Amino acid sequence: MPLETPFGNGLDGRMYTDLARLTPEQRVTLTESFYIRTRASDLLPTDKPWLVRVGGRVPRPFDLSIDELEKGSKPAGLHLMECAGNARSVHFAMMSVADWAGVPLLAILDNAKVKQQGTRVLVSGFDVYTAKSTSSLPGASWIFTWDQLRSAGAFLATEMNGSPLTVDHGSPVRLIVPGWYGCACIKWVNEITLVEDAADATSQMQEFATRTQQTGVPKLARDFQPATMDQAAMPVRIEKWLVDDRIQYRVFGILWGGSQAVKSLEVRFNPEEDYVAVESFEHHVSDPWSFWTHNWTPKQTGTYMIRLRVKDPQVVARRMDAGYYLRSVEITEV
Hints:
mainly beta; Sulfite Oxidase, Chain A, domain 2; Immunoglobulin-like; 2 domains; 5-stranded antiparallel β-sheet; 5 helices; elongated
């Protein structure tokens, strides 16, 4: 698949980040390299001021202008986003980190004195296209509890990497829910609606139910578990070095997701081999992603299957435990 080159249109539009270029010195993905899961619709209204309608079960519905949001925008820090459909077929390249700025979503509702009792928050975005998608359903929206938005620190982003959002990244405003998969980070936000606690799940929630580790496809939003990213790790680059006239390989990888510090990360290079501790590894929960390296001397040429695990059984890592982020490499010289 082409990397860091946009292709396709609308719901079928994509761009993949080249993770092999990552270095510890450059933790932020350049905006022009930040992955795209859906490209902007050619029907996106750009000829009039953008408004975000706040309505539903509120005493007095009101509109938020982009000017108002930009005035209240503050630095929100570095946050990683991963598409819930990130897959081996695209080199797991639907994952990036940006430096965001925006307005906390709950601050907007609190300032409007909106009551929480018996309600959930539905965030929707413009999602209308001229052509029918071959792989996705229109209807970008997600329903959250107030506690979910509060604990995640969800915000309406107006900037990434010090500049206004690009149109393919959700301009003029998108939702960012730190620690959640990208399917919940709605682009082109145009509505915030307070709905009843027994509201039906949205079409987007149902489409991504399997990819966010739900039990089946719940009918009601309240039966959905948070679409949070479990702890995960994988290699993104393998370097070949000549050390003392001998070939040695160095595996460079990333660790991301989860909500607790990882103290022990292990790697193996084929199913018949034992796991060994990763040699150089340090994890800080506050980091959007952490980097690790491991020196490796294969005994023979051939194909190797590289898999990682977190030794601590208390760390939730369902995808990694299932071998989802397994990577393969062909070694032709030892």
